[in-house]
Amino acid sequence: MKISARLPSGPWRSPLRGPWLTSVFGLVLLIGIPVLFLTGLLSYAAYNPDLSPVNDQTPDKGLLGFYLFSWPTRPYWLYRVNQGVHVTLGIVLVPVLLAKLWSVVPKLFTLPPVRSVGHALDRLSLLLLVGGGIFEFLTGILNVQLDYIFPGSFYPLHFYGAWVFFGAVTAHVALRLGRTWRALRGRNVWVELRTSRTGTRPEPPDDSGLVSTHPAAPTMSRRGALGMVGLGSLALFVVTAGQSLGGPLRRTALLAPHGRSPGGGPGGFPVNKTVGYARIRARDIDDSWQLVVGGRGGARVTLSLDQLRRLPQHGAGLPIACVEGWSTENQHWEGVRLADLAALVGYDTDPPGVFVESIQRGGAFRAAALRDNQVRDPRSLLALRVNGASLTPDHGYPARIIVPNAPGVHNTKWVGRLTFGATTAGGRA
Predict the structure, then answer these.
(1) Average pLDDT, the chain
(2) Is residue 124 within 8 Å of residue 92, measured between CB atoms?
(3) What are the residues whose beta carbons fall under 8 Å from the beta carbon of 93, sequence distance 6 or more?
(4) What is the dihedral of CA 82, 86, 88, 91, to 10 degrees?
(5) What is the predicted pLDDT for the residue at 7?
(6) pLDDT confidence band for 36 (50 / 70 / 90)
(7) Stretch among 197-206, 217-226, 384-393 having the lowest mean pLDDT
(8) What number of other Cβ atoms are within 10 A of residue 276's Cβ?
(9) 318 C-beta neighbours (distance < 10 Å), count
(10) More confident residue, 238 or 125
(11) Residue 7 phi, psi (nearest 5)
């Protein structure tokens, strides 16, 4: 005897619920989630996680790192665009995700809860899908706001969560794509968009478990539901995208965590980590500051700020782009090429990567390892000036790294030591 799903009585009486509306929301997510996953993988690759343990806070990734490659320096704007798309799209899809969860919530309460082994596996995939989706979107939004209330480091949590979530999405699509396609073809979208609340009728009963057997009177049309979700996504786009697009739209980026009012002048662009946050003292960056440069065979050079200023100076127009999605327009940086500093310690040709250490005392990412292609790019600088003036303390005075197409945290500020040919403190390449 076949046991069919029974929709629980109670609040699940909306006449809007049904395979068609659920499939519309699902189609939007089917387009958006792979883009989120791909841009997330590229974001992870940008940290050059195979280069050094200091670059990677994701232990034992194993086969999950199969796609990693040496992150390029060209085009210089790639990381900025990638993170802007990743963060903005993730936030814009929140109303769609919530609407999709609302549309399928009766499925979580169908009786009996498990009808067969196959149904149990389907329920498990649904649990991973719903749980993984909520976890990924929630941790991502909290990271954008720099609000780390979850246990553990954001990076491994979000990385492993992404693989679990995308695996569940893939399984769900494989199981439901045929039904979704039939549901979408079963109703004309243009007819639905012209149907008012008074003309709204429940979808025909079926075995999906979504259509109520005792629907209530409609309080909104499907057109209204889609419009409300679309308006919510548009509103989130308006208050988010400006942090990546810049210009006049930056003033509308109400969800941007930092830098909406960075002040004026040459240093009037967003900053994430201030001298106060990094616990930099005035005496750490006064006239006694020196840069230590290490290299081939233990070679070592110590340079004061005046000595650095007497070395050949070069310029580069580059943005700062952070994992949280915010970025600056191109700023004009001036300083000493990393390749020229490598030549001072024995690497006259083909300089290797460099291990960069900051003098900061607080916060994460006080060190970073850069690849050889990053050192060799002529736009990679130990910057001393920006936009025609000396760096401000919050922007890394006396000296900071600026590398094309690198995550913001790898453009280390308040640099105290450079070790060419090393990937860890005191280590060798």
Answers:
(1) 89
(2) no
(3) 28, 29, 32, 33, 36, 137, 233
(4) -170
(5) 46
(6) very high
(7) 197-206
(8) 10
(9) 25
(10) 238
(11) -70, 130
* Per-residue pLDDT at 362: 73
Contact between 167 and 64 under an 8 Å Cβ cutoff? The reply is no
Of 426 and 405, which is predicted with more confidence?
Answer: 405
φ, ψ of residue 175 to 5 degrees: the values are -80, -30
Could you report the per-residue pLDDT of 309-324, keeping only the tens digit for each?
A: 999 999 999 999 999 8
Buried/exposed code over 391-429 (b: 16+ C-beta within 10 A; e: otherwise): bbbbbbbbbbbbbbbbbbbbbbbbbbbbbbbbbeeeeeb
- The tokens describing 110, both together, are 């169908």
Please state, for a pLDDT cut of 70, what percent of the chain lies above it: 95
For residues 27 and 221, give the distance between their C-alpha atoms in angstroms, rounded to a whole number.
Answer: 19
Q: Under 8 Å CB-to-CB from 107, ≥6 apart: which residues?
A: 126, 209, 210
Q: Read off the tokens for 230.
A: 């679309």
pLDDT tens, residue by residue, 258-294 = 555 567 789 888 888 889 889 999 999 999 999 999 9
Is the torsion defined by CA of 304, 309, 311, 316 positive or negative?
positive
What is the torsional sign of CA 281, 283, 289, 291? negative
Helix (H) or strand (E) holding 132: helix 117-144
Which residues pair with residue 301 across a beta bridge? Answer: 293
Give the span between the Cα atoms of 295 and 304, in whole angstroms: 18
Q: Where are the alpha helices (DSSP H) in 239-361?
A: 242-245, 305-310, 338-344
Nearest alpha carbon to residue 126 among 157, 162, 171: 171
CB atoms < 10 A from the CB of 359, how many? 18
User: How far apart, in whole angstroms, are the C-alpha atoms of residue 88 and residue 239?
Assistant: 10
The span from the CA of 75 to the CA of 23, in Å, is 38
- Residue 103 reports pLDDT greater than 80: yes
Cα 56 to Cα 8, 64, 153, 390, 422: the distances in Å are: 47, 13, 11, 32, 16
